[in-house]
Every structure is written in structure tokens, then in C-alpha cells.
């Protein structure tokens, strides 16, 4: 019994160290030294804890990182799925980390853990081991992760006790000595955070109050002499191309201020999650490139897609995508479009990208750590690609990320 208890405590410590940076970030606590210690502690424990503890730690990490995913199911009319989805993510990440439990050798585990940093179960890429180092003294690149894992694993191969800790000196080569922030865009940009609860977002009774609120925000930003106003994902809960009068009003307003807003677009029976840009009376439409697994598409074989979509998503996971990333131009400045999840995907950052405008609706998952994890992921990509992200969200998460 004592052995089982010790294994659980080691697994719990591993999961807590692995998740601490997210929960600290949720309270705006960013301590690089503490984050560095926790990150090294989590990876070190994964290399040395017993096999059974590895499996338990994987399960707990799945819960700690992704307990909130099931929250969205209640808005699809299948709220009973919430605890099932939560436990399911625990088992997904038990299996994700399970290869580490095939061996007790730390250097082999280090190789396996580095390999897992390239794996995305069901196209879901929010489990990135490098995120541990975003707000730490260490870098976020693959070579730095490899150095850290090497430094932590090598002591197991050193025979002489007095030299056991010498390999840790390699950690010096994984430090991020200086991060140079890219310059901000040469425009005055207003990022709007709305507060529309998800249960009210699509109600017809809320449509006109929502539209009135949006026009008030635009007027306020114009009065404050902003060049651009950015509104959240699907802030207009309608198909914009089916509402020409509304579109015309926004076109007219855009002679004084550029307007970037999330909405929907329908053509030839297909639905698109889009960003509309109104600038100097002209319209640009940017379609979403990367869909959310199990939210906007089902990452399973064709025979299973329709059944799951109709049974658990009320037919809502039927969006289609753009073929390539879309750039939008505001007052002559180029921005890459990103809608929610895709702002945390490599595909959006392909090519020449300096500035990204990202829009999200985080009301699906409030209250939870989701907006914090999203922000950390955006910071990871901003640093990886050297860009500035202007993020406007419903419920939580609005801000400039770099």
C-alpha cells in the first residue's frame, strides 16, 4: 500500500510541476525562477519516477490541462458528456505519456519525451512540452528542449557520485539570454473585449442589443481617434453576407475607422467562420484556415464523422476552411488573419508575417484556465516566429501578445 501511495504522490508532484505555470498565469503571477524550477522538476520527475507513476501523472496532466474542454458540450444540448470528456482527456494523456513507462532508463525516457513533443493526438496541439519554458529563464526551441532533457538524463549514466550533477551545467546552453520584442504595428489599434455569455450569444432576443453594443464600441473608438478597432470572433452572431443592410452600415463607418470583426459567412450551402474587414468603404473576407478538432470538424474516418456530428454536436461541426492563410490590409499595413484556435497553429505563421490579428470567443469555456493557456500558446508562437499578435476575445483573453 505504501508503494502505491508513494507512486501517486510522485505522480501528483509531476502533474503539479507540469501545470503550475498555467495556474499561476491565471492569477497573473509570472515568476521566471519559479517557472524554471517547476519545469525542470516536471521533466526530471518524468525521467526518474516509477512506471506506474508515469501513467498516473499522464492522467492527472490531462485533467489539469484540459478539464475545461467538456464545458462546451452543454451548449450543444449534450451537457451529460462534460464529465465523460474530462475523464476521456485524462486517459488520452495517460496513453500519450505511456511510452515513458516502457522503460526505467532515464536516457531512453528523455529520447521518448523529446519525440512526444512532435505528437498531436487527434490534431489537438495544445499539449506542447515547450510551453513550460515560455515564462521561464529557458528557451522555447526544440534544440533547447533537447539540451534540457539531455542534462537531466545524463546524471543517471555518471558512476561517480561526486560528478553526478556535473551534466546539469549543460542547462546553461538552454538559457534564453535575451528576447528582443518586435516593433508594434504603426497604427493605433483598439482591441475590444466583449462579455456576451455563451448561453445568450445565439438567442434572437439578444441580437439587436448585441449589434447596438458593437456600434457603440465602434463610435467610441472613432471618437478616441483609433485607426483600427478589432472585435471578437463571431461577435456578429449571423451570416454577414445575408445581411446587406448591416454590411452597408459598416462599410460607411469604415471611412473614419477600419473595422475588423468576427462573424459567419454562408455560400453554396457551406458555412465559414470568418473575419470581415471594413476599411475605407472596402470589404475583405478572411476565412478560417484551421478548424478546432471536435468543435468545428471531426478528426475521425468519414464513416464516424456524420454519426458523431449529428449525435453530439447537433450537426454544428460542419464548417469548411480556406485553402491557405489570409492576409488583411489595414491603412496599408499587412496583418495575418487568425481565428481563435488557428492562432495557436504553425500554419497561420507561414510566409512573411510580422503582425497577426486574432479573434476568439472564449465564452465556451468560462470560467476556466482556457484563456490563460491560449495566451501562453500565443506567446509561444509569437516568440517562435518573431511576431506581434493583436488578440480580441469575448469573455477573456484580449491583449497584445509578444
Commentary on this structure:
The protein folds into two domains: 2-174, no CATH class; 189-289 and 324-401, Nitrilase/N-carbamoyl-D-aminoacid amidohydrolase (4-Layer Sandwich). 39% of the residues lie in helices and 15% in strands. The chain has eleven helices and ten strands. The chain has helices at 2-26, 32-48, 51-66, 82-97, 106-116, 142-153, 198-201, 204-223, 244-253, 302-312, 370-385, and strands at 189-191, 228-230, 258-267, 270-279, 282-287, 327-330, 333-339, 355-361, 388-394, 399-401. It has a five-stranded mixed β-sheet with strand order 1-2-3-4-5. The mean pLDDT is 93.
In short:
The protein is an alpha/beta fold. The chain contains 11 helices and 10 strands. The strands form 2 sheets. The chain has a 5-stranded mixed β-sheet with strand order 1-2-3-4-5.
Low-pLDDT regions: none
- Record field, number of beta strands: 10
The CATH topology of the largest domain comes to Nitrilase/N-carbamoyl-D-aminoacid amidohydrolase
Cα-to-Cα separation, first versus last residue: 48 Å
Number of helices: 11
Could you describe the largest sheet, including whether it forms a barrel? 5 strands, mixed
What is the assembly state of the chains in this entry? single chain
Which percent bin holds the helix content? 25-40%
